[in-house]
Design brief:
250 residues; alpha/beta; 8 helices; binds zinc ion
Length: 250
């Protein structure tokens, strides 16, 4: 072994000895070996996952404003999905959105931490025991080809459930445009209209289904997927997302 290599091996060993682990989000060093995030990133995570939220739209709301599980904004509004559970709120610059964006850009090893957050939301949802099928919100095949995976499918595989199975029989048949967060709800609904279909031989009829996605903005995508699943005979459609974006868009 050359001297230069030996020195670099020793330095690597020393590095691991002094800094046994780094934060999976921001690479800050951490000392507790049972955690993958530094105290700062954990703090931000707890901050954006803690609040009470509306089970129709997923947005933060005071528990005193909720009537029958629904916030004032959602009273009287029609959704194709029956209930939603979410891990947190999408606050730009904080650890949760940072991890979701990184997760979509190749850092699939974040699936454990994000899976943990999704499972916590699922357990606290009130509909977990009803679920028979998990359905990831599909990507168009061309987008999946470029990215190499569907982040929602990777997330679904991390969900813990004693009986529910995963189905990929909901497909995206049309490429949709990326929409800025500020696009109007009507524009978003138009963008996804007719974009989804079910495969022949699907087993959605009579089933209670939980759609899984990374981010909900206006809910146009989840709504369109839920509509297609209900048309295919699903008896209930729930939704589980990591983060609610567009807190102020109604
Ligand atoms: Zn960190
Ligand atoms: Zn609401």
């Amino acid at each position: 072994m050359k001297l230069k290599q030996a020195v670099s091996f020793t330095l690597q060993g020393l590095h691991q000895l002094l800094w046994p682990a780094v934060c999976i989000n921001c690479s800050e060093s951490i000392c507790e070996t049972d955690r993958s995030l530094c105290p700062d990133c954990w703090g931000q995570l707890i901050n954006c996952t803690g609040g009470d939220y509306c089970t129709r739209c997923g947005r933060d709301t005071s528990r005193y404003a909720i009537l029958g599980g629904v916030c004032p904004d959602c009273q009287g509004r029609e959704f194709h999905f029956d209930q939603i559970a979410r891990s947190g709120v999408y606050k730009v610059g904080e650890s949760l959105p940072q991890m979701i964006v990184a997760f979509k850009n190749g850092r699939t090893e974040l699936d454990s931490t994000l899976g943990f957050l999704a499972n916590s939301a699922l357990q606290g949802s009130g509909f977990v025991s009803a679920i028979e099928l998990f359905v990831p919100v599909p990507l168009h095949w061309s987008r999946r080809l470029i990215r190499g995976y569907n982040q929602s499918f990777v997330l679904v595989k991390k969900l813990k459930h004693p009986t529910a199975k995963i189905s990929t029989d909901l497909v995206r048949i049309r490429r949709t445009k990326f929409q800025p967060t500020m696009a109007s709800p009507a524009a978003r609904a138009r963008n996804v209209a007719g974009a989804f279909a079910v495969r022949e031989g699907h087993s959605f009829a009579g089933r209670k289904i939980c759609l899984v996605d990374d981010i909900k903005t206006t809910g146009a995508t989840l709504n369109e997927c839920a509509k297609i699943l209900k048309q295919a005979g699903a008896s209930k459609v729930f939704a589980l997302v990591l983060a609610i974006a567009g807190q102020n868009i109604s």
